Amino acid sequence: MIRAARRLGALLGAAAMLLALPGSAHADATAYAGTTAIGTHNAYDKSKYTYFAQALDSGASLLELDVYVDSLTKRWRVSHSNPLGNDNNCEHANTPSQLYSQSRDQDLGSCLDNIAAWNQLHPDHAPIVFKVEMKVGFNNNAGLGPDELDTLIASKLGSSVYKPSDLLGSTYSSLDAAAKANAWPARDSLKGKFLFELIPGTVEEANPFDHYWTDQEYGEHLRDLYAAGSISSAEAFPAVLGAANGDPRTSRYDASIRPWFVFFDGDAATYVNNGYDTSFYSTNHYILIMTDAASVSPAISSTAPTDAEVAARLSLLAGDHASLITSDWSTKSASVLSSVVTRG
After folding, report:
1. Which one of 63, 77, 145, 168 has the largest count of C-beta atoms within 10 Å of its C-beta?
2. Where are the alpha helices (DSSP H) in 48-130?
3. Cβ atoms 342, 319 nearer than 8 A
4. pLDDT of residue 26
5. Residue 235 and residue 161 in contact, taking contact as beta carbons nearer than 8 Å
6. Is the peptide bond before 298 cis (omega within 30 degrees of 0)?
7. Is the dihedral of CA 320, 35, 129, 176 positive or negative?
8. Which of 284, 279, 266, 292 is nearest to 318 (CA)?
9. Which tens digits make up the pLDDT trace of 208-256?
10. Which domain of life does the UniProt lineage start with (predicted)?
11. In this predicted structure, what is the pLDDT of residue 25?
12. What percentage of the chain's residues is helix, strand, coil (to nearest 5)?
């Protein structure tokens, strides 16, 4: 009954919330983990945005990239289903003047070049999470492992990346300890910053011969870098993938890497429609990404909802402790996709 009443309240207050969005500066002053924002699924898809720079222009707080390691050519491919080629809206452009005009279907390095060039044009942009799905995982033996991904990101984006070591500072010995202490900076102090989230890929998960997935491999990478005094070289946060009731780290990882996961990523409807207690995530100041936000009951359009429906869904899932909600709402205006509210 309480949940139903809250949903009704969210629907009734949707239009009013949209009108109030320019006044969401109170959310900017809140620690990053205390806010809820909107992301775009598969933002590299040319059917969503002609150029990746337009995805960056969209105002969305999360943009997704699908990456294949091409072990034959030692390249990081960006594509939905082609592991040996690129199929995306990233351009061969590494300066601001080249954006929105160059040849597309480039590799991950060029996507990062586009981001760096766009960042020069918009140095005070709101923080953006890049959700990187490693479709087939890493291939460390081919020189396409966590170290090489860190090096690539660092070489392209430098200090514009908010890294695990930034959350740790000089005080905490694990990401879990830092998150529980709410060591996240205020949202407005993350202007001009990017964060990288890594998840296992669909091909990797379906491979019966692969039991060493992206999440575990990068979690061990963080653990080992910290032990070696080199945590500052890590550029990304691994995510626990899949909605679960309770702490999913306990059953998935050994005790040595559990403290290196503070990003969680799962289907919104699984969390919400099943009544999972998601307060665990906000209590511990973890980043919770709820995907396919449109499918939560009552379902709305996954591509073209009204502004009021987006506002109501954002309000609803903020109350369910999401940090970021994602869908295929690329047609919505920047004023809608840039919406930020206080997390429940």
Report:
1. 63
2. 52-57, 108-121
3. no
4. 53
5. yes
6. yes
7. negative
8. 279
9. 999 899 999 999 999 999 999 999 999 999 999 999 999 999 999 999 9
10. Bacteria
11. 47
12. 40, 15, 40
Q: Which pLDDT score is estimated for 27?
A: 67
Extract the tokens encoding 142. Answer: 């081919």
What rounded mean pLDDT belongs to the chain? 93
pLDDT of residue 201: 97
First and final C-alpha spacing in the chain = 18
SS3 14: helix
Which structure tokens are listed for 314? 């954002």
* Mean pLDDT computed over 319-330: 98
- Residue 32 predicted with pLDDT over 60: yes
What b/e sequence results for 171-209 when a residue is b if at least 16 CB atoms lie within 10 Å of its CB, and e otherwise?
ebebbbebbbeebbbebeebebbbbbbbbbbebbbeeee
Q: What percent of the chain has pLDDT over 90?
A: 91
**Angle between the N-to-C axes of helices 214-227 and 146-157, in degrees from 0 to 180, rounded to the nearest 10:** 80
Distance CA 191, CA 185 (A): 11
Which residue matches tokens 């918009």? 122
CB 12: neighbour CB atoms within 10 A? Answer: 10
For the purposes of burial, counting CB atoms within 10 Å of the CB of 295, is it exposed (0-12), middle (13-18) or buried (19 or more)?
middle
Global confidence as pTM: 0.93
Neighbours of 55 (CB within 10 A): 29
Give the whole-angstrom CA distance, residue 11 versus residue 309.
7
Does 1 have pLDDT greater than 90? no
> Tokens 């799905």 belong to which residue?
133
For the chain, give every domain's residue range: 32-90+126-342
Which residue in 194, 264, 178, 197 sits closest to 236, CA to CA?
197
CA Rg, the chain, in Å? 19
d(CA 276, CA 38): 21
Helix (H) or strand (E) holding 334: helix 334-337
- Fold of the 32-90+126-342 domain: TIM Barrel (3.20.20)
* Secondary structure class of 311 (helix, strand, coil): helix
